[in-house]
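Quick one: structure tokens for this chain, please?
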Amino acid sequence: MEKQSPIFSKLYNFIAWLLQRTDAFPKNERFRLAARLENQSFNLYEQLARAARSQHPADLLEPADQILGMLRFYIRLSHDRGLLTIDQYQFAAASLVEIGRLLGGWQKSLTARTSAPTEGA
């Protein structure tokens, strides 16, 4: 098995954890909040996968950051509606912060590459 980038490993673990939690949401919330959480999580993974394979990944990472922001919102709303315990909320929030750091580092590395002076210039 190939070595996976830390952002993909962290996001995979978050999604696996999240699916277990959303399975326990009440039926009315499964069609509302759980579906949004799950879809945004999958969308984020797909967006990052596209960026990893793209010639211009920076163009795809900004939308990924926006998706991450929506995930943070849905996690907070889930907690505020009593669907996640404080421990679950803290775990999810910490996971998303870590994913955000990795995403920011990826974006920063791309910016550094494009702004680095070329030799002989």
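Residues 86-115 form the longest helix (30 residues).
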